Amino acid sequence: MTELETPLLRDTAAAESGDVKTEEMILNMGPQHPSTHGVLRVVVRTDGEIVLDCEPHLGFLHRCFEKIAESVNYTQVTPYTDRMDYLMSMGNNLGYCVAVEKLVGEPVPDRAWHIRTIVVELDRIASHLIAIGTYGLDAGALTPFFYALRDREKILRIFEEICGQRLNYNYVRIGGVAYDLPEGVESRILEFCDYFEPKVDEWDRLLTYNGIFIKRVANVGVLPVPLAIDWGVTGPCLRGSGVKRDLRKKPGYGIYDKFDFDVPVGRGEMGTVGDCWDRYIVRVREIRESLKIIRQAVKSLPAGDHLAAWAKRRIRPPKGDAYTKIENARGELGFYIVSDGTDKPFRVKTRGPSFCNIAILPEISRGCMIADLIVIIGSIDIVVGETDR
Amino acid sequence: MSEPPAQVDIVTSLTGAFPALEALPTAIVYPALMLVGAVIATLFVSLFGLFAIWLERKVMAHIQCRLGPMEVGRHGWLQTLADGLKLLAKEDLIPKDADKALFILAPIISFTGAFMLYVVIPFGRDVIAADLNVGLLYLAAVGSVEVVGIIMSGWSSNSKWSLFGSMRAAAQVVSYELPLGLSLLPVILLAGSLSTRDICEAQAGWFWNWFLFANPFMPILVVIYVISSIAEVKRAPFDLPEAESELVSGFHTEYSGMRFSIFFLAEYAALFGVSAIASLAFLGGYHTGIPAIDGIGGFLGGLVGVATMIVKSLCFVFLQMWLRFTLPRIRLDQMFHVCYKVLLPFAFVALVGVAVWQSVLPDRSLWFLPR
Predict the structure, then answer these.
(1) pLDDT number for residue A2
(2) Rounded to 5, what percent of chain A is helix, strand, coil?
(3) Is A141 within 8 Å of B327 when comparing Cβ atoms?
(4) Which one of A38, A42, B198, B306 is most buried, counting C-beta atoms within 10 A?
(5) How does pLDDT run across B115-152, given as a tens digit for each residue?
(6) CB atoms closer than 10 angstroms to residue B367
(7) Secondary structure of residue B272 in the 3-state scheme
(8) Would you give the DSSP letter of residue B364?
């Protein structure tokens, strides 16, 4: 563990002027703390309620994913990716699979891509629901979380039907998806979309435009664009700062170019561009966009195979390396895979969005209050399974 | 206003009910009856605690599309009892570096502070533990005793979270004493007395005699009172001292088992306490607002009074629960802003307004009806 940069005890301005003798305090937030979203540990240097500096410490959930991946074959890596960003397992599966597919260089059936798009977007909604629900909890609103879980449950039911799992799906496979969609599930997905669209409005009434909520999160933790780009922040955090960067649009992957959807960005409606409210509203609006994509994908679902014929054999990509990136719920999820021609990857390197995004925390939280720090951590929306891998 | 009633307390009302007691020597009867009163009040607070925790969980659950406790008893009405037994059976933990004496004393002081509110709360014309002639002043005074226990708990726990929580609690409770006190001052102007029983008696008759409708300023004061009383009992959106997502659980982070449950009970005792003050100061206390019903004398009339008082207070309790599960928590600086820059000026204006109204239109109510 590194030492904090500045000395522990420093007389504050008040002490210098001879008024009151105050001391700074080191506060150890986490790894067991209700609002660090898992086992993140943040060491905070405070002056009363003011955060002078903070430093996130990672590694409490490290599971050696990248090393394990070197000792199992290509197909066996997929379940491990599930456990990284466990709130968006479908996205992780997809990120890994497209990297292997690029390495192999064989095409994937159109139907498989449609199914992948549907499940990934459903999972994006589920993940954003958890993100904004726990964000409400961080701000002290207890109720929205349960509304989020109620609707997420409906998505999990659909997933249960599709792949038999509720959290770690292992559904998107190299060359397609594990199983074809069960009969009638398309109509249930559309039913869910119809049910859920008004619920997003309900969400707005419940939390988004709540006066206290806006007062708590607007103008807090402002992330300017140059800082965001320098630190490699991606996903809703970057879009919250007003940068229209979505890998589904540009460069685009899979069949996203077929669908009509917008990329919402933060506009500073309630305060400064790039504040916590902007990062939050981007997620809410992305839910609506994902619903649009799901509707279009279900309606244009073609017949055909759900798994490419080449992927049913043992996968031995030719020698070489490949890097692909996809848009996960938290940002750019990149996989760099080196193949030595055997059936096991020589090296797998993951670029996790949570890992890169949490690095920004000290930069944007200096000088805020402890309550703000909690809200900022919530607005960055990390999944510790992925920061640590 | 009618003739001020004679001083009543638990002793006079009980001896009134059981004349046989008068035959016994005062030196025995007086302390014995006081003890009876204390036991009744303790029982009430404990039973109310059991009920309120169940109610809170049910209200929370139904606001959040859930059912809440359903297993122990019908609709989980025994759940709190089961939880209480569990807390009783827990190991008595005191952190190694804690200040032991203060750590043990803190929940007791906290609970005593909340419990002492009940001394002057009139549950009926004759159902009052002690009708002090400085009733409201007494309420304001003992209402802030609780914070002493909280500061002690935060300091003695030797935990940074507890310290943060107790410092927040101290700042918050002391600040909100001001608007709370100011919103009760006009009640004294209207009733012409500090005694809680006199205040209720001044609101007898039809419900438009309640102080809530006394003049256009009283509704503002009720809102100020409700907001500051929420802050006073440290519940959301003013739950900064125990902000779960920020301070783990604030001042009682290190407490577990029975000590924790005493803190919990103190919170609910104070919750009902401030709600009862609201109903006695603004909603006529034990008066139903219909003279025919209030006219019932004897035991039945007393029962109606007690029921009225409890129902009115429960309305405020429900309001506080409702707000808790609807609103996010405000930040420390916003908490002070609301207190000093919003509530306090409004309370002052309303206080002056009530005073002027009383001197210019002393016998006209909010609707310009004769009072």
Answers:
(1) 43
(2) 45, 15, 40
(3) yes
(4) A42
(5) 888 888 888 777 777 777 888 888 888 888 888 888 88
(6) 8
(7) helix
(8) B
Say yes or no: A50 contacts chain B, CB-CB below 8 A.
no
Q: How many CB atoms lie within 10 A of CB B31?
A: 11
Find the chain B residues whose C-beta atoms sit closer than 8 A to any C-beta of A.
60, 63-66, 160, 164, 236-237, 239-240, 243-248, 324-334
Which residue in this structure is represented by tokens 């590694």? A59
Question: Contact B325/A143, CB-based, under 8 Å?
Answer: yes
Q: Look at A371 and B329 and tell me if their CB atoms are within 8 Å.
A: yes
One-letter amino acid for residue A316 of the chain: R
> How many domains does one find in chain B?
1
Task: Please give the helix or strand (H or E) that residue A336 lies within, else none.
Answer: strand A331-339
ipTM, two decimals? 0.78
Per-residue pLDDT tens digits for A262-313 = 888 888 788 888 888 898 999 999 999 999 999 999 988 888 888 888 888 8
Q: Which site among A36, A44, A135, A142 would you substitute to test the B interface, given the most B Cβ atoms closer than 10 Å to its Cβ? A: A142
- Output the pTM of the full model: 0.83
**Nearest residue in chain B measured CA to CA from A376:** B246
Across A120-220, the runs of DSSP E, i.e. the strands, are 172-173, 176-177
- Domain ranges, residue B265: 10-360
Please identify which residue in the block is written with the tokens 């991606």: A234
What Å distances lie between residue A159 and A36, A148, A162, A167, B36, CA to CA? Answer: 28, 17, 5, 9, 62
Average pLDDT score over residue span B245-265: 81
Cβ neighbours of residue B140 closer than 8 Å, sequence gap 6 or more: B177, B180, B181, B184
Q: Which helix (H) or strand (E) holds A55?
A: strand A50-57
Map out the domains of chain A as residue ranges. 13-57, 65-388
* A:B CB pairs within 8 Å: 78
Question: Which H or E run includes A43?
Answer: strand A41-47
Q: Does A374 touch chain B (CB under 8 A)?
A: yes
- Give the CATH H-level superfamily of domain A65-388: Cytochrome-c3 Hydrogenase, chain B (1.10.645.10)
Contact between A55 and A43 (Cβ < 8 Å): yes
Q: Which element (helix H / strand E) includes A351?
A: strand A345-351
Name the residue type at position B51. Answer: F
Query: What one-character-per-residue DSSP string does B130-196 give?
Result: B--TTHHHHHHHHHTTHHHHHHHHHHHTT-HHHHHHHHHHHHHHHHHHHHHHHHHHHHHHHHS-S-H
For A:208-227, CB contacts with B below 8 A are 210, 212-213, 215-216
Does the beta-carbon distance from B329 to A139 stay under 8 Å? yes
Which residue, chain included where needed, has tokens 């490699």?
A: A232
Preferred mutation among B245, B330, B332 to probe A, highest tally of A CBs within 10 A = B245
